[in-house]
Structure formats: structure tokens, C-alpha cells
Design a protein that fits this description.
InterPro entries: eFR1_2_sf. This protein is of the alpha/beta class. Helices cover 43% and strands 24% of the residues. The protein has helices at 37-44, 48-70, 84-92, 113-126; strands at residues 6-11, 15-21, 27-32, 75-80, 102-107. A 5-stranded mixed sheet has the order 3-2-1-4-5, sandwiched between helices. The radius of gyration is 16 Å and the shape is globular. It starts with 5 loop residues before the first strand and ends with a helix.
Length: 127
């Protein structure tokens, strides 16, 4: 029987915790956005149009790194407290490379790593 490749991603605009669901243990990978609080402070002093361009560029770079990390999975659950997961999904849903992946999006609060693991275990046990 073929094992399905399943991945849970807790994310917001600054960090993503990628956890592969396996029978053994969770493999955790972290991708950090370059859109830090420091960058946000810097852009506040810039003109508003430049601030939006810089923010958008940094987020697109972050989402590109995430998309590279998920391309070989069959099922992905995106969860977290912000709309970053929806923005990310909107971008990749237009890319033919991700049509084969079954996505689910859930709103959650901030979570510890253990809470994230429990959430993914419960989700994929029911799926």
C-alpha cells in the first residue's frame, strides 16, 4: 500500500512550521519570512507606495519558498491565525504544479509545537 505524503503548515506572515505527517514522527522544517518587525518599522518611514511594494515582494519570496517545499505532497492542511494561509493558497491555486494537491484551510489561534502536532494528527486521522 502506497503511503500518502501529507503535510501540515502552521503559518502567519512571518514564519511557517512545516510538519510532515508520518507514522513514525514529525519532520519539522521552518521557513522564515524576511518581512520582520524591523522591516515593517523601516517601511513606515518610506512613502506608502514603496512600503506596499517592498512588503509584497518580501511576501512573494516567502510564499515561493513555501511552494517549493510542498510541491511533492498529496495533501496539505494550511492553518494559523492570520490570512497568510489564504493569500498563499490564492497564489498557488493558479499554478498547474499544485492542481494534484488536496488542500484544506483552517483558522486557528497561535499554537505551541505540541499543539500543532496534535492538530495535524487529529486532522489526518480523520481524513
Amino acid at each position: 500500500m502506497k503511503t500518502r505524503k501529507r503535510l501540515g503548515i502552521w503559518m502567519d506572515h512571518s514564519i511557517a512550521h512545516l510538519m510532515e505527517f508520518t507514522n513514525k514522527h514529525f519532520e519539522i522544517k521552518t521557513i522564515v519570512s524576511k518581512l520582520t518587525d524591523e522591516v515593517k518599522e523601516e517601511t513606515l518611514s518610506e512613502r506608502e507606495s514603496l512600503m506596499h511594494i517592498k512588503k509584497k515582494r518580501l511576501l512573494l519570496d516567502y510564499y515561493k519558498k513555501l511552494s517549493e517545499a510542498i510541491k511533492d505532497y498529496e495533501q496539505v492542511i494550511l492553518f494559523g491565525p492570520t490570512n497568510a494561509k489564504i493569500e498563499f493558497f490564492d497564489i498557488i491555486s493558479e499554478d498547474i504544479h499544485f492542481f494534484k494537491i488536496k488542500f484544506k484551510i483552517k483558522n486557528t489561534d497561535k499554537m505551541t509545537h505540541n499543539q500543532q502536532h496534535d492538530f495535524i494528527k487529529e486532522y489526518f486521522s480523520e481524513a
